[in-house]
């Protein structure tokens, strides 16, 4: 009665096997309190005079081992569920830096199965100083690290905050590392935009100071143009003032022109259609952006200069048109007219 009914056939099979070979099997016994006890049973045939068909049975209690195995399976299942459901990219590496676990978000980030591969091969991260991210160096530095990095892929860059910690075993031994990659691209772009806006405001302030401090209109215009080029990152620019008598736009400051004749064209030909077109554009008192100069009619001067993208800004006093600021880029650009 101490053998669980389901284990009777296993015990009988172990006892029936012929020969002197040791037989082993796993079965269950019933304890005094009615609970089942898993055991590992070894059966050896004994050769004893006067006692034919004798056996030696050795039973090993597997209760604790079963509990440990179940705990390991439960922990593995829980870890797998956490990784699958985590919103952030989480990667677990062994001591050599090879990936042994990865969340669903981590798989999506590298667009391939990262398992079994070196972390640096799958995630080619760059630190903010341009140096390549090294998992080994980060781990050797000791404390948990949080490092801002950049990941290039599919023609766009992602900014990731990398958090690295140790994977510790039950005896407090280091088994590897746990890396969390948090996408901070939106925050980073917002910060960069804010810095650019602050820089623009600073330059506008400097332009205002230059206007107030300058008694020479050409020096003033040259200072304004220099700062406008710094803000826009353009290759060439010119400030023209309107001569109301001749209705021409005369240059007072310029930078980046390859052919000086192009700079004087509007002044030499007051009836030129390009001049008339620009005057009509500026008469609207609005900033005008052209992102395909080479494909548009007119704007011949800028086409000759190899300009691809152009921004035309009217210079106003109250509501009166004083002139124009023209900035051009020889590489295709997208400008925000606001």
Q: How would you describe this protein?
A:
- There is one protein chain.
- The termini are far apart.
- Strands 5-4-9-8-7-6 form a six-stranded antiparallel beta sheet.
- The longest helix is centred in the middle third of the chain and has 29 residues, at 185-213.
- The chain has 338 residues and is of the alpha+beta class.
- It is built from ten helices and 14 strands.
- The protein has helices spanning 8-16, 63-85, 104-110, 119-122, 135-140, 185-213, 217-232, 260-268, 273-283, 300-304, and strands spanning 23-30, 36-48, 51-61, 89-94, 99-102, 125-127, 145-153, 156-168, 174-183, 236-243, 248-255, 288-290, 309-317, 320-329.
List the helices and strands and how they pair.
Blueprint: H1 8-16, E1 23-30, E2 36-48, E3 51-61, H2 63-85, E4 89-94, E5 99-102, H3 104-110, H4 119-122, E6 125-127, H5 135-140, E7 145-153, E8 156-168, E9 174-183, H6 185-213, H7 217-232, E10 236-243, E11 248-255, H8 260-268, H9 273-283, E12 288-290, H10 300-304, E13 309-317, E14 320-329
Antiparallel strand pairs: 1-2, 2-3, 4-5, 4-9, 6-7, 7-8, 8-9, 10-11, 10-14, 12-13, 13-14
Quickly list its features.
single chain; about 350 residues; alpha+beta; 6-stranded antiparallel beta sheet; 14 strands; about 35% strand; rod-shaped
Overall mean pLDDT stands at: 78
Low-confidence stretches: 267-271
Shape: rod-shaped
Distance between the termini: 90 Å
What oligomeric state do the depicted chains represent?
Answer: single chain
Q: What structural category characterises the helix and strand content?
A: alpha+beta
Order of helices and strands: HEEEHEEHHEHEEEHHEEHHEHEE
Number of strands: 14
Main sheet: which strands, in order across?
5-4-9-8-7-6
Q: Rg to the nearest angstrom?
A: 39 Å
Strand content: 25-35%
Largest sheet: 6 strands, antiparallel
As a percent range, the share of helical residues equals 25-40%
Total of DSSP H or I helical runs spanning 4+ residues: 10
